[in-house]
Every structure is written in C-alpha cells, then in structure tokens.
Amino acid sequence: MQQPNAVKVSWETWPRHEIFQFFSGMSNPFFGVTFTTDVTKVKAYTKARGLSFYYALVWLCTRAFDQVEAFHYTIRNGALYRLETRWPSFTDLKPGSEQFHIVTMPAEGTIDEFCRTAKAQSMAQDVFIRMDMEGDGLFFCSCLPWLPLTALTNERDFNADDAIPRLAWGKYTEQNGRYTLCISVEANHRFIDGLHIGQFYQALCELIDNLP
C-alpha cells in the first residue's frame, strides 16, 4: 500500500491529548463547516494556461492542509502518527461518462505539473478505485459543478479513529466580475477544531492570492 511518510508520536507529548480524550467520549465526534472562497484568480490562472480548475483547487487545498499542523495526525493500530503530508483522493469523470471514479495520487510538483499529471492519470485509470492507494494518509475530495453547493455530508462507516478530512465544493458563481464558491469541510473533532479549519481557510486564501 502506497502512503505518505509518517512518524510515530508519543501520546504524552501531544498537546491535544486531553481534548482528544474528551471527544473520544462522543458517539459521533465528526462535524462540518462550509465557507465561501473567492476563486477569481484560480479561474483566471487555469483558463490562461489551459488547466483544470478542479485539479488546481485540489492542489491548492493540499498545500493549505500542509500549513495547518492539526491536519497532519492519524491513528494506526492505536498509535498516534504525524503525516508528512496528505495525498488527495478525488472523484473525477471521463468526458461523456456518468460513472465517476476516484483518483488518488500525491500532489507533487507545481500546480501546473500536478494538473497535467492528474489529468493523465485520471484518463488512464480503468478501474473505479485503486485500493493499493487507499489508507489513512489521504483527504477525500469531490466536486458538484452542476449546482452551487451550500453544505454537504459524506457517507462513512463509523470509525472514531478516522482522521481523514472530507472536502467538497460545487459550481462557482459570478457577481461583479468576482467568482466565489462554497467549500465544505468535514473533520473529526478528536483531531481538528473550528480554529484549524479557519487556519486552513486563511492558508488557502493566501495561496490563491499569491497565484501570478
């Protein structure tokens, strides 16, 4: 199984241990937040270079996750691990198809390189999902480009140790020359608070603002 690098962490030295234990007593420690993001520069950048807006936003979200410490943690066989990064596992459609498939890959290289590699991998993939790429070092991502998204919940087999964030967004909308869309984030409160989703939002906005 291919997974991002991870290092074992001592429970006793993890600053979040007490909060983790508190939310471990909840029957459902998962929560969701949706926020609006200005993606005008993403649209302009990808259009000018002939890149996928979707793949570009996946890359940007990966880099934003990397900047927030709370999103790096997972549990394996009862032990705490810190991930070097998270790999995106995202839904996609081949042209003309109504049957989606799931592409999982590291977000390596520049945004342009990732977009081109993601397109090639998606087009070449001939199975619904590559199970050899599945694991706890991912984040799940989906897009509903047919409608403006205001909120979304994901299916899951309940597992309190599930630390995989879920992202989704819909169709962007235009007003006065600016393009915005809502991004939905689902997370496990044992690992992540609203503060950390706020940090993710700020990191994502800065990455977008810094696009040439």
What fraction of the residues are assigned to beta strands by DSSP?
25-35%
Biggest β-sheet strands, sense, barrel? 7 strands, mixed
**What is the string of helix and strand elements?**
EHEHHEEEEHEEEEH
Mean pLDDT: 96
- What is the β-strand count? 10
Class per helix and strand makeup: alpha+beta
Calculate the terminal CA-CA distance, rounded to whole Å. 37 Å
Cα-based radius of gyration, to the nearest Å: 17 Å
**Helical proportion?**
25-40%
List segments where confidence is low: pLDDT < 50 over at least 5 consecutive residues: none
* Global geometry: globular
Give the helix tally: 5
Short description:
With 212 residues, the protein is an alpha+beta fold. Helix content is 29%, strand content 27%.
Description:
- The chain has 5 helices and 10 strands, in the order E-H-E-H-H-E-E-E-E-H-E-E-E-E-H.
- It has 212 residues and is of the alpha+beta class.
- The strands form 2 sheets. Strands 2, 5, 6, 7, 8, 9 and 10 form a 7-stranded mixed beta sheet that branches. It has a 3-stranded antiparallel beta sheet with strand order 1-4-3, with no helix packed on it.
- The protein is globular and about 50 Å long.
List keywords for this structure.
single chain, 212 residues, alpha+beta, seven-stranded mixed beta sheet
Q: What secondary-structure arrangement, pairings included, does this model have?
A:
Layout: E1 6-9, H1 17-24, E2 30-38, H2 40-49, H3 53-66, E3 73-76, E4 79-83, E5 87-92, E6 101-104, H4 111-124, E7 138-144, E8 166-170, E9 173-175, E10 178-188, H5 194-209
Parallel strand pairs: 5-7, 7-8
Antiparallel strand pairs: 1-4, 2-10, 3-4, 5-6, 8-10, 9-10
Helix pairs in contact: 3-4, 3-5
